[in-house]
Amino acid sequence: MKKPVEIAVEALDESEAKAELARLAERVAEADRAYYEADSPVMTDAEYDRLRTRNAAIEARFPSLARPDSPTHRVGAAPAGGFRKLRHREPMISLDNVLTPAEFSEFVGRARRFLGLDPSRALPMVAEPKIDGLSISLTYEDGRFVSGATRGDGIEGEDVTANLKTMKAVPQRLHGGAPSFIEIRGEVYMTKTDFLALNEAQEKAGEKVFANPRNAAAGSLRQLDPSITASRRLSFFAYAMGAASDQVADTHWGYLGRLRGWGFTVNPLSKHVRDEDEAGAFQEKMAGERATLGYDIDGVVYKIDDLALQRRLGSVGRAPRWAVAWKFPAEQAITKLEDILIQVGRTGALTPVAQLTPVNVGGVLVSRASLHNEDEIERKDIRIGDWVRIQRAGDVIPQVLGVIAERRPKGTKRFVFPDTCPICGSRAVRETDEAVRRCTGGLICAAQAVERLRHFVSRGAFDIEGLGEKTIAEFHTDGLLKSPVDIFSLPARESEIAKREGWGETSARNLSNAIEARRRVPLARFIYALGIRRIGEANARLLARHYGSYRRFAAAMRAASDLDSAARHALDSILGIGPAIVEELAAFFAEPRNVATLEALEREVTIEDAESSRGESSPLSGKTIVFTGTLATMTRAEAKARAEALGAKVTDSVSRATDLLVAGTDPGSKARKAADLEVRTIDEEEWRKLAGF
Ligand code: IVH
After folding, report:
1. Is residue 501 part of a domain?
2. Known active-site residue 673
3. What confidence tens digit (pLDDT) does each residue in 591-632 have?
4. Cβ neighbourhood burial of 498 (10 Å; 0-12, 13-18, 19+)
5. Which of 157, 420, 450, 488 has its CA at a distance of 20 to 30 angstroms from the CA of residue 410?
6. Which domain holds residue 484?
7. Ligand 1 within 6 A of 315 CB?
């Protein structure tokens, strides 16, 4: 077949653009079908990337022509040479941690209170060793393995299907009786023996060695060439479910049995525990056996066994109310503090970092650790040259706990925290009540500018590959990148970039492609990319879901910089957005330079509306509800959580703004007030129907 002549994006007129978008949607869909369903790709990854990039570039020029079946609405475009993105049918959430029996009791107590469980009723759980690997979601259709992805941001992950197909522990077909659609979650990990053997082989071959089994597992799975994955020995334990077309069990324990029946390996140490005491005993047993196991574990996961209770408990933010990770105590070591470095973050915060004589802490070589802040160094009188105790727990940055006083060498001096920025020399000041000293250099501070740019292109934000720290710093120094807006003029300077040292035409083109592919950005990512203090990914998502579109968000934020405005009050009342966050948002939007940057950015990128949260289509979404009286079938906490999950706002008192009063037994004065104000009042039974119990 003759290849159609492609007109340059800039030269397309509207009708040509329309036809071209239709052609691209068709071609990409065909490629996806071939790749995912027939497992026989019809084009190279590079060609696939090029089509998607072209599609995104045309849509950026003609936003109104974007088709409902556009490839940009499907899974996220893969950066040149990277993995495609896959969206999880049901989000992959994470777990909260506890460290002590008291914290574990609190977790159990909270769940019991939420459910209003009678104290005499048992709450059995399943205990599973917590393996430190990487979590994976596997999708099976009609019993056949169709795709698998890493956790990613919990909403979409990286498509590692081809690599998972090389793993023996991932069944290609499920034995008997699987639902027609099911997502199965578990952990890919590497045993200690396989890890040591791999590192030995790597070292012999002059290749990089891995710091720990977790990194080795992740590095082996996230290989663009599946034959490398195939040559590595990876293991897999299945332990959780995602979306499924049918209910497959009533209890988690039963579910583990089904998993085994389908052909998965379930950790044989998993145990059904009847109560808190049995859980405590299991925790101690595992802590004792930890060192003798064939793989690293960093704790035990406890899951409430009854799946109906799990559903009622639901989740808060990124963690379920029905499961918890009880971690083992952190590992410690003693080493020498060689120096204290001061780093400058994107908000200008000066953070002290300990430079250490490298030391092995529970299998990981540690050479840097956090010193928290100025006061901490002062309080613990930590000096350069001291011997310090450090601690490492899970994935968090190692911490300096304190000084070994008797080993202090002679002649050390108290550490004086700098009062100027080590990068730009501006004054660094501490505001009252703030633990942190900040550089006042703002826009002139290169460290802040570089950190802001890095944040802007980072994975949870614009996710532009190929713009690493080093490149950003160089481009910044040479004036190519001053503000995030400049990123989008880099493609126009491709030939100039290609001539730079260490570049070349291919890498310059890859960079342009990676940037063009990100001219459409979901609202939550855009908000997060702005790098406003206290607006992490979770808060950005909350705001995106609340406002829906960039236009509404921006208008509200501008209005909210006025303290007494309705917009400010509305912002104050978004659940999960506290006053400190509101302050930061308002301050950001009150700064004219920020507003100007936003306007310039809007000309460069298309900000996609937020996906309607589950709640938006529910009859309760946007409604203000008041509960009164006693509910017989659920606690107030459960009722409130469900209402909020469905998009409603729950308040304590009845006013004209109340849409609905749910009255249990003995409702009292609120019911009278509701009647006076003609607020719709319903009983518990009607509430259960409305909320879908
Ligand atoms: S359950 C809502 N079970 O720990 C269910 N996670 O800290 C979420 N992990 O992301 C996960 N062993 O990577 C679960 N038996 C187990 C696990 C386990 C290890 C990991 C997993 C998860 C992380 C959360």
Report:
1. yes
2. no
3. 888 889 999 999 999 999 886 544 445 778 778 899 999 999
4. middle
5. 420
6. 464-517
7. no
